[in-house]
Amino acid sequence: MQHNTTLLKMPQTNGIMASMYDKWLMVISLAIVSGLFFLSDDHRFGLAFLREAIIGLSLLAVAYVLMLKKDQLDSADWYFLVMVGLLFMLPPIFAYLNFHQPLQYGFLEERRTLLYLLYFLIMATIGGRKGYGDGDLEAILKYLFYIALIWSVANAFALIPRNSGFSFSVHAEQFTEGFIATDDRFETRFMEGGFLITLYPYYLIARGYFLKAVVPILLLATYMLYINQTRGFGLLIAIVFIWITILRHRVNNFNISVLLLIPVVFVLGYFAYFLYAHAFGDSVIFYDYHRNRELHVLLGEALRDFFMPHGALSLQFNEGFRSVYGINIYVSDIGLTGLIFKYGILFIPLAFLMIMTVYLLFSKYKNDFSIILMALLLANFMVAPLGDFLGRGTEGFALLMVLVRLQGVNHEHKYIACVRRGRAS
């Protein structure tokens, strides 16, 4: 299938060097869309409406591509578009059918899903300006690493003023009435864009630059220990490192059955464990009291309705799930059970679409960022109970797709021309 030589431009040789202007243009663009400066979940950090502005521009970019460049999209792009469309459309519809929540509240709740589409925004605007060589991409990620690290530290120590007038405590309201939160972790764990700090260490390991990766990994570990302090995210990072180390040696003979086996085994394994805990009224060992309450409510509802999709309720509509089940429930925070409740049996085709998108990119490009993207996908399934890997982390997934395209096709560590006259290989 034909590839767009401007929308999806890829370097033709490993000798390409972008100008400093082009590198900084890419750094600034990726930093803005990455979520680093988005309004945080507790509204204490970030710029109000920046996320919504990026979503609006991304939708315009998709409209432009579909109207003028549709014939230049390949199979991975179509799988990706269908997945994003379903992730955005299905929950509001089923929340309306099950809970009579007006559609506008549902679409507002699911707007973050549309951040997947920033892939088209970047590629349709500056992604095709220049070819970016390996040195350029490493420099871009290095700049982004230190920008994100400095920004996060400055926020953690209140060197950047907090937003005032519209902040609230995300942590306290997750618990029952009268609960006094004793969690003294930095509030910055609610900041968006934490994944941006991981990209540079991921890339160095994928390239085999282990000595060069020592200092960035130590800084990343320090960031996770003292700034982010999110245990699930820390576990995900560790597993991604392991998979990158494995995949970089098997990029040319990776068995597709592994890509299917890992998700199936872990999803079925976790689901069997949850069924056991629900049937006998036990607690899941890696959930706290409130998460266990959420699990039993959501899994019970999913079983009672034979895995029909339920969608998700917005806090803006009648206090969300509190008005239905008597407790606050954050479907995204409960991971796999939340996905099963939200999408029901449709979770299977949605997960398949994500797997196919990653597989097609990995099998075609076989480059460092496709390795990272594959490692992230496998790690997400392995920690599926700890977060919504379909509806969260959208910016990271989209930016990795951009970087896969920018780096181009890798055959035995030598980049070759990907665009022939009129058609692409």
Characteristic terms for this protein:
425 residues; mainly alpha; 2 strands; disordered C terminus; transmembrane helix; O-antigen polymerase
Ends apart, CA distance between termini: 8 Å
Number of strands: 2
- Any idea what the radius of gyration is? 21 Å
Query: What strand line-up does the widest sheet have?
Result: 1-2
Shape: globular
Instruction: Classify the beta-strand content into a percent band.
Output: under 5%
Please mark out the parts with pLDDT under 50 across 5 or more consecutive residues, or reply none: 1-6, 8-14, 170-176, 178-182, 411-425
Tell me roughly what share of residues is in helical segments: 55-70%
Mean residue pLDDT? 85
Organism: Thiothrix lacustris
Transmembrane segments: 21-39, 45-66, 78-99, 111-128, 140-160, 233-250, 256-276, 343-363, 369-391
Keywords: Membrane, Transmembrane, Transmembrane helix
Protein name: O-antigen polymerase
Write up what this structure looks like.
Residues 1-6, 8-14, 170-176, 178-182 and 411-425 have low confidence and may be disordered. By secondary structure, the protein is mostly helical. A two-stranded antiparallel ribbon has the order 1-2. Helix 2 (50-68) packs across helix 5 (118-125), helix 14 packs antiparallel against helix 15 and helix 15 runs antiparallel to helix 16. It starts with 19 loop residues before the first helix and ends in a 10-residue tail after the last strand. It has helices at 20-33, 50-68, 75-99, 103-109, 118-125, 134-156, 196-207, 210-228, 231-247, 256-280, 289-304, 322-325, 336-343, 347-365, 368-382, 394-407; strands spanning 410-411, 414-415. It contains 16 helices and two strands. The chain crosses the membrane at residues 21-39, 45-66, 78-99, 111-128, 140-160, 233-250, 256-276, 343-363, 369-391.
